[in-house]
Design goal:
homodimer; 342 residues; alpha/beta; Quinone Oxidoreductase, Chain A, domain 1; Rossmann fold; 2 domains; 6-stranded parallel sheet; 10 helices; 27% helix; 24% strand
Chain lengths: 342, 342
């Protein structure tokens, strides 16, 4: 049996104030230890990078524990079983795990789900057929509840969650209006993904363009960015509109002074009251019992060509910090995944 | 038959900017016209004054049409049938109507509900057994959904809605924490209404006192005031907390600069996301099909002494504007009702 490998890992060196910078991360190496009975040694093949990880870098109260200082950054991964002392796993098995930003990891198997490499590309388990696709599905099905003919708006529409939200909204019979940054992403959202309209939030006319694309108002706003987009959206919400909140990229990084000196909260609360709005934060695992439905339905939609996806693959674990910083700035185009090993 | 009476009425003279002032109202007189077939002439006995009326004075988009300039201020009323050309109503019948701030009104009967003066004091139809009591009941039953042992917080706890919220929450098995302004109201909320705790929002230690009274966090916050109370409450909300929003007295009057230069909206949105909160605006008539349940249950709770109420009766229609202005400042103590005629 070959010698135990050395694990490369990226740990949280310090907590960011505002936007994360390279110095918040540190590369480390560690010798992999021997396996205990029941354990498996995993080689990470792909690492998913997602906006929620910004929240884990803070020590604020949240639904999940923060990453500890000097702890390995967490994250979903696809891995290969290298060695095993667990009867349920054989060397060479491909699994979905939550091993974080590292090249190797040891698991007792309880958090692993075997993947069939012949059924779908492995990376889809981290994206459209994984947590991000399920976030879109669960938020729409349980909170957004779009009715036929209603207007669903989603930001970061070329991203992993947003692209699925708009396409699933259309499968449910609603109109989908996507918001994205720049012409290229907008063209993709409208022409490739089939959204009914795509609005560029970098345009000076963003708020006007959005209102024009939503001439019957907005019935569902799937909130995954926050910031100025939310400020432009909420005045357009219809009575009884629903706002599933699954992410706030624009707010992960900042405590910002009021732009024009005014506190926006009273106006938003007035809208909530006057229009009987529902604003509901959620995390996909609340709806874990719906995952079997999702795998079945989304698998069929993909094979029918009704649910498309795009991946942005970055080579090498050492590039994960920069790629993650870029994700928070909207520099990726498609689901961001790090190719760690083949 | 005696001559037709003259109707005294109070109309909206101008739209307020911020707090309403006396000059926004104007007293008028008008001769009552003859009845057409199917109509009844009502003499208003009691007029309900409620915070929602502030919203009707603006022309902003809302679930209800604004009062027009020179239009009679709207409001719920208890009235006596004076004359009738409608076979369903006899002279002397007592009815619940929505006749507004005036001494007489003509109705075709479709908006009237007959009241039994022997069953409960007439004024309760405007308060604990009327719209305000039903607002508390519907918001808790459909949105707040308190579980046994959970903590329910409500502001304006000595007021019409708040006092019912806390008592019904306790009937549902929850802990009730009330927020009120001043020692007298707090004593009433705790000692007379039986809330588990009462916190004075005028105290310098308000936020600390509130946190101490909610040592297990807050599971339901029944939002009927907004402003600084909401700012103190939302950091204490537990994961999956529910916030029915039925009123925002503090926001009806102001577009205010950010107190410390910071926009509070991002922090609230982060809380919604991190704690999977539900914020849901509502108006009681969404749940109109539950009114029969409410009349039956609340009637029983009142006769069992489990649901108490307090009324603040103002004499004379001409005093309605000042009383209403005081309501928005918290000067009333109990459900505010104007005694228009006997």
């Amino acid at each position: 049996m070959p010698a135990l490998p050395t694990s490369n890992r990226i740990v949280l060196a310090s907590r960011p104030t505002g936007k994360p910078v390279s110095e918040n991360f540190r590369r480390e190496q560690e010798a992999v230890r021997d396996l205990a009975e029941g354990e498996v040694l995993l080689q990470i093949l792909y690492l998913s990078l997602d906006p929620y990880m910004r929240g884990r870098m803070d020590d604020a109260k949240s639904y999940a524990k923060p990453v500890e200082i000097n702890g390995v950054m967490e994250g979903g991964t696809v891995a290969r079983v290298l060695r095993t002392r667990n009867a349920f796993f054989a060397p060479g098995d491909i699994v979905l795990s939550h091993s974080g930003w590292q090249s190797h990891a040891i698991s007792n198997g309880s958090d692993l789900r075997k993947l069939d490499p012949n059924q779908a590309p492995l990376t889809t388990a981290l994206g459209v057929l994984g947590m991000t696709g399920f976030t879109a599905y669960a938020g729409l099905r349980n909170i957004g509840k779009p009715k036929v003919g209603e207007t669903v708006v989603v930001a970061a529409a070329s991203g992993a969650v947003g692209s699925a939200v708009g396409q699933i909204a259309r499968i449910f019979g609603a109109r989908a209006v996507g918001i994205a940054g720049g012409r290229e992403k907008c063209d993709y959202v409208r022409d490739e993904l089939g959204f009914d309209a795509a609005i560029d939030h970098r345009s000076r006319d963003f708020a006007t363009d959005l209102a024009a694309a939503c001439s019957n108002g907005i019935d569902v706003y799937f909130e995954n960015v926050g910031g100025d987009v939310w400020s432009a959206v909420y005045p357009l919400l219809n009575d009884f509109a629903r706002v599933p909140v699954c992410g706030l990229i624009a707010h992960y990084n900042e405590n910002r002074p009021a732009a024009d000196g005014y506190d926006q909260l009273p106006a938003v609360m007035r809208s909530i009251l006057r229009k009987s709005l529902t604003i509901r934060g959620f995390i996909q695992r609340e709806f874990a019992d719906q995952r079997p439905d999702f795998y079945r339905e989304a698998g069929a939609w993909i094979s029918e060509g009704r649910l498309k996806y795009r991946e942005d693959i970055v080579e090498g674990l050492e590039n994960a910090p920069d790629a993650f910083i870029g994700l928070l700035e909207g520099r990726n185009f498609g689901k961001l995944i790090v190719h760690v090993a083949s």
